[in-house]
Amino acid sequence: MDSYSKTGYLKDDFRLFHITDEEEHSFSYHYHDFYKILIFIRGDVTYHIEGKSFDLKPYDIVLVNAGEIHKPVINSRSVYERMILYISPAFMDACRDGADSLNRCFVQAQTSRSNVLRVELFSQSRLYQVLQELEKSFGGDAFAAALYQKALFLEFLILLNRFSMDAYTGTYIENSRCNSKILPVLDYIGEHLAEDISIDLLASRFYMSRYYLMHLFKQETGYSVASYISTKRLLRARALIQNGMSVTDACYQCGFKNYSSFSRAYKKLFHTSARGERNPS
After folding, report:
1. Interatomic CA distance for residues 80 and 23, integer angstroms
2. Per residue in 148-173, pLDDT tens?
3. What does the alpha-carbon distance between residue 221 and residue 81 come to, in Å, rounded to a whole number?
4. Cα separation, 276 vs 88, whole angstroms
5. Among 38, 151, 219, 221, fewest CB within 10 Å belongs to which?
């Protein structure tokens, strides 16, 4: 079975990184248990997320939801530069203004079936100015530095959401490449995780042979059908447990039929027990 690792750890409410790879580098499929925003600065990169592919242009904003399996593919030897923000889901949930949630841009990305927001004249925008000031704030120790940093970060998120809601300034771009046969399969899996999902069922429902489905799924997403379903079930179970659901209920609501199998798979993927999520040390 394929193995897809969680990369990056987040102990704070948010973090910012400015990374430049000058040498050729390859990345494996991975996921995070927090939100990720990537601002692409330069390079020759195609970003793969959940069966979709996006050829990036400078200052494209890549939005990756917690649990989405993704990787960048470097297409040439050119320098790959980007800024990355990690955001805690708990922090994101706490930052609301009535009905306005700062994760709206991520929700819109899912609705638009696109993970890349292209902002008109980004490098001349207030959004970019705030991002630059935010980056500087991580290296200073001025008065109330942490509070100022948080204020800048909240301003960045508010502006990002406003740009994403304005069709004149922000556009969710279309996939550069995708196989139209795979996206409905991914949607079906996501909507039916609590039910029995087999390769034979998917092949029959989407009018493909079993072998063709397995081959196409692996080719277009980078992982097997079984591994994808198992990982998605475990990620959903973890979210339910962390939001207060009992471990047993989360196990069965996410499509697992046997608790001991669920427990072993959970520990293998997250390197902690499911019950440990309820009572962290």
Report:
1. 8
2. 999 999 999 999 999 998 877 789 99
3. 24
4. 19
5. 219
